[in-house]
Write a structure and sequence with these properties.
Helices cover 73% and strands 0% of the residues. The protein is mainly α.
């Protein structure tokens, strides 16, 4: 399974269209519970990968902020980000409360990361 995930991540990094749901390749059947669980497992790995990429950009932004003497927390920017994410998420049927909670956790971790880098 790890090999499959790494293969998918390599394709994702190269900018190729990824096939996170290639049933034939992984010998899965759509009516099989394992089929859906493996899809979820792959998606979970991708979420972690994407969070890692996001946090690598947080580090770059912190370097810029440090160099240009900008505060870590910029409330106007955070409000725009949160509003944008909520609007996008609503189009997929997610509740505003769920998205706010999730993005607040991500944002808190980003700020914590920035604070840890400062030390």
């Amino acid at each position: 399974m790890k090999k499959i995930i790494l293969e998918q991540i390599k394709k994702y990094k190269k900018g190729k269209k990824k096939s996170w749901s290639n049933e034939k390749k992984y010998n899965l059947k759509k009516n099989d519970l394992d089929f859906y669980r493996k899809k979820i497992d792959l998606i979970d790995k991708k979420i972690i990968y994407d969070l890692n990429v996001r946090f690598s950009f947080v580090k770059k932004i912190w370097e810029y902020k440090k160099k240009n003497n900008i505060n870590s927390l910029q409330k106007d920017r955070w409000k725009k980000v949160l509003d944008s994410v909520i609007q996008t998420a609503k189009t997929y049927g997610f509740s505003e409360n769920f998205i706010k909670n999730l993005w607040n956790l991500i944002h808190k971790e980003s700020l914590k990361l920035e604070e840890n880098i400062k030390k």
